[in-house]
Amino acid sequence: MSEMKTIVDIAVEAGSFKTLVQAVQAAGLVDTLKGEGPFTVFAPTDEAFGKVDKETLESLLKPENKDKLTAVLTYHVVPGKVMAADVVKLTSAKTVQGSDVTIKVEDGAVYVSGAKVIQTDIMASNGVIHVIDTVILPPGA
């Protein structure tokens, strides 16, 4: 049996998370997200990042805005391994960033702070990935 890949490895190989991977690298979070975890990552696709104002995104990726970028990215990460079956039972979850995300089930779909979960339970060696269709921003970002 082959060794399971980390959250970062999976995101790189999937090919639809190029912006997320670039942002994780810019924020210096690669080692963290390759670490033991476990983590639950609500991963925005490149299409989700495409909805973000281009200037805002470019600004976030600048070295001088590393703290703000880190806050945005860690707002997409919940400590522990939370499978979809458990996510739907929650109304909120505390993120690594420190703020809570809201969780809502509506018409059979799950939303995390307004972003629709479009794929669930992608298993990694150090956690689980749920794919979302929108970048979520922490309060005050």
Architecture overview:
- The protein is α+β, with helices and mostly antiparallel strands and 141 residues long.
- It has one domain: FAS1 domain (Roll), CATH 2.30.180.
- The protein is built from seven helices and seven strands.
- The protein has helices at 7-14, 18-26, 30-34, 46-50, 54-60, 66-74, 84-87, and strands at residues 39-44, 77-79, 92-94, 100-106, 109-112, 115-124, 127-132.
- It has a seven-stranded mixed β-sheet.
- The longest helix has 9 residues, at 18-26.
- The radius of gyration is 14 Å and the shape is globular.
- The model has no long low-confidence stretch (mean pLDDT 94).
Keywords summarizing the entry:
globular; FAS1 domain; alpha+beta; seven-stranded mixed β-sheet
